[in-house]
Write a structure and sequence with these properties.
3-stranded antiparallel β-sheet; Cytochrome p450; alpha+beta
Length: about 525
């Protein structure tokens, strides 16, 4: 959630507020009078007329950090007002568990934002769609045709071959440039390497295309365009514009963000339309032969789904685009955080490589079956998810029914819900030294805790019905890429200083800056 209050034109806002003040004040007063006398969660202080708590997010402090500080003052469950909208902010794993189990069906829908309207095909995308028959139908189709354990096993060759090819290309780069450094090291921009690799994997799984590397199936220029569109999509999807909190400003596009969203959506739809028509032509030419990718599968089964009035083409395009965006971007983000943390803690890098040498050795490549035996490396991944969840505030939800929690808090219908995952996973009552990077914490007393939504102390992918459907796929890709990288290469920082771990605002909290490190091979040449 990227709040853009600092970009509002003050004079325009004052005029609009003057015009709308009476109407909104009247609305709030009537709402307050009609509300039942119930015990509500505490509301944070400092609210402003009309704007509510929006002013708290004007500065450089990130929303999840600002809300975390409010939790220290008002408790792990409190409310704020974003314009006319009440928001419940939860930073406690026990309450998160209760809401995601007892009240799960009542918090499984999404608020309607300008971003979801313009970028999500008017809330047709799976991640953004309201809970109901349409969402269940699409979720079931995605699970069976792409993200089930059975299907992921069938698609194993894609992730394995892509990782193997990418490692070989890194080795080839080292061969070409090794003489430029007295120590035989070669600088590599790892974020780009991660992005190209995860993008190739997801694009092959969903559309059968591969844009990057020696084995590319498609034009690299088109691939870069697609990556740019996906990055813009993720960026703007996490953009909260003033009209989301102040509906009476809906006729204004302050800052031009809605115009930019529409342009990104148009370009994204153009790409998806090209892929869709290619698949239709291929299907006609092949005469209904065996399906090869997810777009083939959804085209074959789209008639089984209650489309809720949407066109079949819109559903196919929106579903495929959100799978590519989420499935490629999230692993890239988490791989970047993981490698940054490892490089800032040399003893962790040493222990991880020692474990790899013990379990795998240096006479063969890493196999996916080895990951179950790499206890320390899996602990590194969990600790990365704990400290830097890909979405610090998750994806917003909305209460579709009045709810009363076990602590007797009454939550009115239409209240928005934010799980402050970043704060929840740094709870000092759960984790010792919660701000420190300590993979060891997951080897002994916390070894049974996973990230699959069963342990609410650690829910980087969310929980309940709206847990990220790609959790298992992302987990597999992340582990396999990280193990191959650490097993195949010696890694070292280019500078003596630590890698910058500063977060940024947006749906993903990763800064758009390079991550450059030195690499050198650590295995026999014949293994590359």
């Amino acid at each position: 959630m990227q709040l853009l209050l600092q970009n509002l034109n003050t004079s325009i806002i004052l005029v609009c507020i003057s015009i709308a003040f009476y109407v909104v004040f009247h609305y709030l007063a009537n709402s307050s009078k009609s509300r039942k006398e119930q015990k509500l969660p505490p509301e944070a202080g400092g609210t402003w007329p009309i704007l509510g708590h929006l002013h708290l997010f004007r500065g450089s402090k990130l929303p999840h950090i600002a809300l975390g500080e409010l939790a220290d003052k008002y408790g792990p469950a409190f409310t704020i007002r974003m314009g006319v909208q009440r928001v419940l902010v939860v930073s406690d794993w026990k309450l998160a568990k209760e809401l995601s189990t007892t009240h799960d069906v009542h918090i499984s829908s999404r608020p309607k934002f300008r971003a979801t309207k313009h970028l999500g095909y008017n809330d047709t995308m799976l991640v953004l769609a309201p809970y109901g028959p349409y969402w269940r139908g699409i979720r079931k189709l995605i699970s069976s045709e792409l993200l089930s354990n059975r299907r992921l096993e069938q698609l194993k060759h894609i992730r394995v071959s892509e990782i193997e090819t990418s490692v070989k290309e890194l080795y080839k780069l080292w061969i070409e440039k090794k003489n430029s450094d007295p120590f035989g090291r070669v600088p590599v921009e790892m974020k780009k390497w991660f992005r190209d690799l995860t993008f190739n994997v997801l694009l092959r799984m969903v559309t059968g295309k591969r844009y990057f590397g020696a084995l590319a199936i498609g034009d690299e220029k088109e691939g870069r365009r697609c990556q740019r569109v996906i990055r813009d999509f993720v960026k703007f999807l996490g953009t909260f514009v003033p009209a989301d909190a102040l509906p009476f400003l809906g006729w204004l596009d302050i800052g031009g963000y809605e115009k930019a969203m529409k342009e990104v959506a148009k370009e994204m739809d153009s790409l998806a339309e090209e892929w869709l028509q290619e698949h239709r032509l291929k299907k006609e030419a092949m005469g209904g032969d065996e399906e090869e990718d997810f777009m083939d599968a959804i085209l074959s089964r789209i008639e089984e789904i209650d489309l809720n009035g949407c066109s079949a083409d819109t559903v196919v395009k929106s579903t495929c685009m959100v799978l590519i965006a989420g499935g490629a971007d999230s692993p890239m983000v988490m791989l970047t955080w993981a490698l940054s943390l490892i490089m800032n803690h040399p003893h962790v890098l040493k222990m991880a490589q020692e474990e790899l040498d013990m379990v795998v050795g240096k006479e063969r490549k890493v196999d996916e079956s080895d990951i179950d035996h790499l206890i320390y490396l899996r602990a590194i991944v969990k600790e990365t998810f704990r400290l830097y969840p890909g979405g610090p505030l998750g994806v917003s939800r909305i209460f579709t029914k009045d709810c009363t929690t076990m602590s007797d808090f009454h939550i009115p219908k239409d209240t928005w819900l934010f799980f402050n995952i970043w704060k929840l996973q740094r709870d000092p009552q759960v984790w010792s030294s919660p701000l420190e990077f300590k993979p060891e914490r997951f080897i002994n007393c916390n070894k049974e805790i996973d990230v699959l939504g069963r342990n609410f102390e650690l829910i980087p992918f969310g929980a309940g019905r709206r847990i990220c459907p790609g959790t298992t796929s992302a987990h597999q890709i992340l582990h396999l890429v990280l193990t191959n990288l650490l097993h195949s290469f010696e890694l070292s920082n280019i500078s003596n200083g630590a890698i910058d771990m500063t977060e940024t605002a947006g749906l993903s909290n990763l800064k758009d800056t390079p991550l450059e490190i030195f690499i050198a091979p650590r295995l026999s040449p014949y293994l590359y």
